[in-house]
Design brief:
The protein is of the alpha/beta class. Helix content is 38%, strand content 22%. A seven-stranded mixed sheet has the order 13-12-9-10-11-14-15. A four-stranded parallel sheet has the order 3-2-1-4. Strands 5-8-6-7 form a four-stranded antiparallel sheet, sandwiched between helices.
Length: 395
């Protein structure tokens, strides 16, 4: 395998911590990075982002042409285009042929990819290939909802998360009664459309029963894989992962591989799972066909997903994985509130020593990096400002 890397760089579209981790991974290898986003500014502060651009977003009219114009103006021929947010995934997949005239793109076409990205279609694919999946109810109207007789609690999820609103940002709403279900469905349908809402059985269990599979795939086969436990998240029930530990769980790999082989998958992928103690099965919940928040754990533990994708896109052999096991990933800004919440709920065991043990090395940090400190220093004021703006907008 040649040690030299191709001269072309990478354009990262959207995302926050995953985009930041990807920029650092590539930048440390001398690969130039451009960041394009209409949302979170945090990755712009990385020393490894050569240039950053604001745009109207993946759903804006002419978004694909905007990217082609950027490539022409900035000389980005053969740069790899990597989506880091859901809306960018769909944009690239729908316009793959056009975008490949300027960029290198590793993606299925949208007609093939949407069976993973749309939760309604995902449930059908899971049934087709015979893997366990939470029971999902077909709801395309208020009349369909009225006819349901589910066992509560149930969850409401957006079928797709390209749009940015309170429903897609929360990712999931829980209904414990028929009255709550009716009210939440009305709100969800106002954001995602009457047929854009998934109603799904709730799998009992705390946050530590949640897992993830991560991989990079080529021609329907895995190049590298990793399984993790999403030990803590904030909020603790349906929040964002803030403490992750590598675990070896072949049953998760088996389910993920069966699902992705059926789709003949290409590119980066992360699949969220939950263990269902009622039948002893690991059940997939969501498939993220993009960079994910904790992708930096891969570089730290020796499975460098981003560099593998880069080499694949340029026709080179991906670097081998070292398959380290004793690594963790932490987002301190969310993890500390998560632990405090668990303490208040009486679910935390071991007191302060147990929490301090989380910091034992080796740890991959969501934002902190000795060679790139500015994003960590600005994250708190940026987050506070965004929360304040969101609350004002909702009010």
């Amino acid at each position: 395998m040649s040690a030299a890397l191709p001269p072309a760089g990478v354009v990262l579209l959207g995302g926050v911590h995953g985009a930041l981790a990807a920029a650092r991974t590539l930048g440390r290898k001398g690969i130039p990075v451009i960041y394009v986003s209409d949302d979170h500014p945090l990755p712009r502060f990385s020393r490894y982002v050569r240039e950053s651009f604001s745009w109207s977003g993946a759903q804006a009219p002419g978004a694909a042409q905007w990217l082609l114009d950027l490539a022409a103006k900035r000389g980005l021929k053969d740069w790899l285009l990597i989506p880091c947010a859901d809306g960018d995934v769909k944009l690239i997949a729908e316009n793959r042929d056009a975008l490949q005239k300027a960029f290198r793109v590793v993606s299925l076409k949208w007609d093939d990819l949407k069976q993973l990205g749309d939760k309604k279609l995902l449930a059908g694919l899971a049934t087709q290939v015979g893997i366990p999946f939470p029971r999902s109810y077909r709801v395309d109207s208020a009349a369909d909802l009225a006819a349901l007789e589910p066992a509560f609690p149930v969850l409401l999820k957006p079928a797709q998360r390209e749009a940015r609103n309170s429903f897609t940002q929360d990712k999931v709403w829980r209904a414990d009664t028929r009255e709550e279900l009716d009210a939440l469905y009305r709100d969800a349908a106002a954001h995602s459309g009457a047929s854009g809402v998934v109603v799904q059985d709730y799998i009992p269990g705390e946050g530590h029963e949640q897992y993830s599979y991560a991989g990079v795939w080529s021609a329907g086969e895995p190049v590298a894989e990793m399984t993790v436990r999403r030990t803590r998240q904030y909020p603790s029930d349906f929040g964002i992962s803030c403490f992750i530990e590598i675990v070896d769980e072949p049953r998760i790999r088996d389910v993920a591989e069966k699902l992705l082989r059926a789709a003949r998958y290409e590119g980066l992928v992360e699949i969220d799972f939950k263990f269902d103690a009622r039948d002893g099965q690991f059940k997939p919940l969501d498939v993220n066909t993009r960079v994910w928040a904790w992708i930096g754990l891969g570089e730290a533990a020796g499975t460098d997903f981003v560099t593998m994708l880069y080499r694949m896109a340029h026709g080179e052999q991906p670097p081998a994985s070292t398959d380290a096991k004793d690594y963790r990933w932490m987002h301190v800004l969310r993890d500390a509130p998560a632990v405090l919440s668990l303490i208040r709920q009486g679910q935390w065991r071991g007191g302060l020593p147990a929490y301090l043990a989380s910091f034992r090395q080796p740890v991959a940090w969501a934002t902190m990096a000795w060679d790139d400190p500015v994003p960590f220093l600005v994250e708190i004021p940026i987050t506070a400002l965004r929360i304040m703006r969101r609350r004002m907008s909702r009010n």
